[in-house]
Amino acid sequence: MHNIQCDVAIIGGGPAGLAAAVSAKKQGAQKVLIIERDTALGGILQQCIHPGFGLTYYNEELTGPEYYGRFIKQAESLGIESLLDTMVLEVQPTGKIICVNSKYGITYVDAKSVVLAMGCRERTRANIQIPGTRPAGIYTAGAAQRLINRQNEMVGREIVILGSGDIGMIMARRLTLEGAHVVAVVEIMNYLAGLTRNRVQCLDDYDIPLLLSHTVTRIVGNERVEGVYVAQVDENKRPIGETEEFYPCDTLLLSVGLIPENELSRATDIEISAVTNGPVVNQFMQTSNPAVFACGNVVHVNDLVDNVTLESEIAGREAARYAMGSFPQVKRRISLETGNNVRYLCPHLLDIADMDEQITLYFRVLAPEHNVTITAKSGDAVLYKKKAVKVNPGEMEHVTFKTGEIPASSDCVRVDVTKEV
Amino acid sequence: MLKTDVLIIGAGASGCAIARELSKYQLDVMVADKNEDVGGDASKSNSAIIHTGYDASPGTLESQLVVAANPMYDKLSEDLEIPFERVGAILPAITDEQFEKLPSIKEKAFKNRVYDVEYKTAEQLLKMEPNLNPEVKGGLYIPRESIIDPFLLVVALAENAQENGVSFLLSTKVTGLKIEGDRIAGAETTAGPIEAKYVINAAGLYCDEIAHMAGKDDYYVNPRKGQFYILDKNTSCKVEHIVLPIPTKLTKGKLMCPTIHGNMLVGPTAEDLTDKVDKSTTREGLDSIETDVRKLIPKVNLRDSITQYCGLRPNRNPEGLHVDTYDDVKNYVNLSGIRSTGLTGSVALGKYVAQTLIDIGMKAPFKTNFIEKRKNIPCFHKLSRNDQNLLIKQNPLYGKVICRCETITEGEIVEAIHRPIPARSVDAVKRRLRAGMGRCQGGFCGPRVIDILARELNIPVTEVNKNNKGSYMIAGKVR
Ligand SMILES: Cc1cc2nc3c(=O)[nH]c(=O)nc-3n(C[C@H](O)[C@H](O)[C@H](O)COP(=O)(O)OP(=O)(O)OC[C@H]3O[C@@H](n4cnc5c(N)ncnc54)[C@H](O)[C@@H]3O)c2cc1C
Ligand SMILES: Cc1cc2nc3c(=O)[nH]c(=O)nc-3n(C[C@H](O)[C@H](O)[C@H](O)COP(=O)(O)OP(=O)(O)OC[C@H]3O[C@@H](n4cnc5c(N)ncnc54)[C@H](O)[C@@H]3O)c2cc1C
After folding, report:
1. Residue B169 Cα to ligand 2 middle (Å)
2. What is the CATH code for B85-147+223-310?
3. Residue B282: its chain A contacts at CB < 8 A?
4. What pTM was computed for the model?
5. Which residues of chain A have pLDDT under 70?
6. Of A134, A143, A251, the CB nearest to B446
7. Is the Cβ atom of B158 under 6 angstroms away from ligand 2?
8. Is the pLDDT of residue B442 over 70?
9. B210 touches B16 (CB < 8 A)
């Protein structure tokens, strides 16, 4: 059996894995290895040929390949190694990685620390339980995007898209540009799931109707999709029978959410958050197994790659320090509490060492709201306070503060989003 | 013109089991099916349970076949390499009224000669199945109720039959039977006429249409829909046995059980329909599963569902499983009413039909070179790391994982495409290997499987179907 030794092993060569690798190497780790199941690095961004990446990280608008291309260049010049076309099958609690490829067969990788950067997968028709037949022509938006942008294959001609997530909206535009007719984008909530800028650039600019508070109630067609029934929903998201209408189409695309891909993490016995569906991490992006770190969509679903890069740089840096034996000594643990209108916080907890650290907590709200105040408090201390005109579950928010500001008497930080009165 | 000794119409569990049995004789056997693949209709959407027959109507042919078939599966599953497990069933009584029914159910099992059914106390049952409704009063344990991979059962029967000389004509619909005097001379099909000395109708839901072609109109078939949920392997609430409800007069009821691959199966409904092509799940049907199964397993979590599907039971009117022969159509065997236990019964039915043919005058000596065993495609994820490594050294395609949820490799997919009965569609690959049957439902492997099919079959991607003709996956190339 083939064996490899390294300091930091990174599972997944998407933007998260690439940024973690570069930062681990810069921190001084000797041998950094990326293991990627695809034939090339870049992750999901390989199929994101649209612009819209790097607006905050680089202050430029890049396409997906341009964005990760910069990281691949850095990785190459730093001498980071990668094992492509290689599927990781197992990460043992000891940190040993078992992977497989055609060239070496079963391969064991022994690493001093591991970074999980496996990204996420898409929710399916079955997850949301759409009744009806099971014909060809039902695709998740990401699978359709892969087919069109990487395999040059068109999924259909008359398209209904369920879900107003970013990928769905981007695919609405892409399919229109390729000559398909997008009948409608249907969204069960009364607000947009994705970024507002995508609604403007991908739907409004192409006159693609967006039906909020609507859902697909039934799929029709024996061999290929022949159409779908669409109905308005009431405040409990239940379809209103009388409003049901038939939309002829040959394709149904689903953009109904992403789930962090944590099959490997589960088997590794690390703690998984029931809310984010990803590993529970501290501000070092360290999981409940001290030698295992995690970053990117495997931790929580990000809408902007720029945020992924930032948190992955932390993960890479800290994994390197762990491998080199210079990881900070943790003194006390601070729990993080989701207050009013906060769905989750990432990282999920803070492990405070001696130094005064700058912390960024990312979060999503539960429901859209206008004119709010975002606060982070610990005991009596207000660590962060800012007004926002608008918050939306589709756009990630954050608070920042320094660990030194947390009172010695407190072991908790709470984040709230409250409506101004 | 195609000629054969025996023509079997239908390549479901029934047709394929008959074909395998007949392949033990020196005969030309042909199986015609309208579908693109073997596997049948009902045979690929059922509860996948190998029943014991404990609850059959005593004395009926159905009881005989199921009771006879169950013990055959230990050897068959070994010979043909079909995943099969004797997990056992429990029949818990939740109410006092149900508790009072237990003795009569046990008595019926006894009449069916299923002697190993045992009474278990509530305490024993809760120990066997901790997720059971704690109000359980007691119940029965039926140790030989088992689970199987239903797709591989039929594929394996077909492949073994084929290796022993049977030919399969797929995408071949029988449209008429040619009757000459008191015999059938042959069949008209969408692939041309076939001359046959004997004809067997194993057409499931459509057996009444074939019977009509043979001039027999003494029954009709309506579909009885059964809807199901399949739950993720990681679902929070699992069971280890087949957990059956106490049957009512109307139905066997909805059950929960593990599948042979470690998922949970929950269902089915029983809804009488008239439309034979209505294979759609409904909100009401799915909701009724939740309500009913909660009475047995209160914590069942249907939000962990990775797929929902439905199957159509061929419900005969008047009811009953029949294997009929006729004085006025001498070389014809008509099967009907193979409704709710046909997967189990198939292997006994095969033997029964072979004997029926002999009874009506067919003469055929045994083959001396019958091949009893069939090798399955190597199942990468079940092998030890060492064996995986060896396999990759022999064929590097086994080192490339295509379906990430079920860990299915390109080597397996390519092999399935080039088997003697080839997998020629996305669903045919899925049924044989489970690529696309995991939690992402082909979101990841789907696009890759399409490309592999196109490459291996040397066809444009636009000709790759999900299953039957018309179910194209790709509408065209990007400009
Ligand atoms: C369709 C789409 C459109 C987007 N559009 C935008 C946009 O316009 N602007 C923007 O800023 N952001 C956008 N995003 C968000 C951003 O691109 C993602 O958040 C980012 O790609 C996540 O990076 P990641 O590295 O965590 O995951 P991924 O990019 O998914 O990378 C994960 C990698 O891990 C590999 N992997 C997984 N499991 C294994 C295993 N077992 N063995 C080996 N390798 C494995 C995968 O093959 C993959 O390469 C978009 C995201 C998607 C999905
Ligand atoms: C919801 C449900 C749950 C069930 N659970 C179980 C269970 O747990 N255990 C069990 O033992 N049984 C179970 N059954 C019953 C079992 O599935 C069926 O009895 C069995 O599969 C019938 O097999 P078959 O080969 O007779 O029919 P089918 O599988 O329906 O095959 C008939 C074949 O005939 C072909 N055909 C029809 N007309 C023509 C034509 N004109 N020309 C050419 N070909 C034609 C069709 O294409 C089809 O392939 C269940 C059934 C259902 C629906």
Report:
1. 18
2. 3.30.9.10
3. 131
4. 0.95
5. none
6. A143
7. no
8. yes
9. no
